Amino acid sequence: MAAKPLNVLFLCTHNSARSILAEALLNHLGAGRFRAFSAGSSPRESQQPNPLALQVLREAGVPADGLRSKSWDVFAGLDAPQMDLVITVCDNAAGEVCPYWPGHPATAHWAYPDPSEVQGTTEEKLAAFRRTLQAMRQRLDLFLMLPQEALTPLSIEKTARELAAR
């Protein structure tokens, strides 16, 4: 019998770039062992995923269909999927007071520069998104090396926090 996939929530302020990249990438690489979600602490009204984030995902062969920006409040309710791990991917969201997460998931912070703040040509901006995606992939590849039996709440948090230093 297959183990239940672990739910991972990636948080950022607007849920338009970094958290969207992480959600799509983990769902793609996780091979059913993980279910990734993303949200923002304060997405703007009518916030949509950054088109450059969607473009680099598609270029990398990562499905981007169905990705949408949403508030972290969506995941704080009793009817929300229970998270096993919550990872902030921007310093602003890491410094905010998070909602109560049902089930008391493990937490970690993986800081990435905001590629959407890069000024310059479209190619320079795309390069920033590609660098962020690559940095995320390196961490996630290491995280995914954990054997299924090692995915206990304590080891998940320990490993996720150790990967923050990479």
Named CATH architecture: 3-Layer(aba) Sandwich
Can you tell me the number of structural domains?
1
* Largest sheet, strands/sense/barrel: 4 strands, parallel
Number of strands: 4
Helix content: 25-40%
Spatial order of the strands forming the largest sheet:
2-1-3-4
| Outline | globular
Q: So what's the CATH class? A: Alpha Beta
Task: Give the strand content.
Answer: 5-15%
Estimated structural class: alpha/beta
Low-confidence runs of at least 5 consecutive residues: none
Number of DSSP helices? 5
CATH topology: Rossmann fold
The CATH superfamily is known as Response regulator
Measured between the Cα atoms of the first and last residue, the distance is 34 Å
Q: What's the alpha carbon Rg, rounded to whole Å? A: 15 Å
For the residues shown, what is the average pLDDT? 88
Topology as a string of helices (H) and strands (E)? EHEHEHEHH
Domain Phosphotyrosine protein phosphatase I: 6-146
GO biological process, one term: response to arsenic-containing substance
Keywords: Arsenical resistance
Protein name: Arsenate reductase ArsC
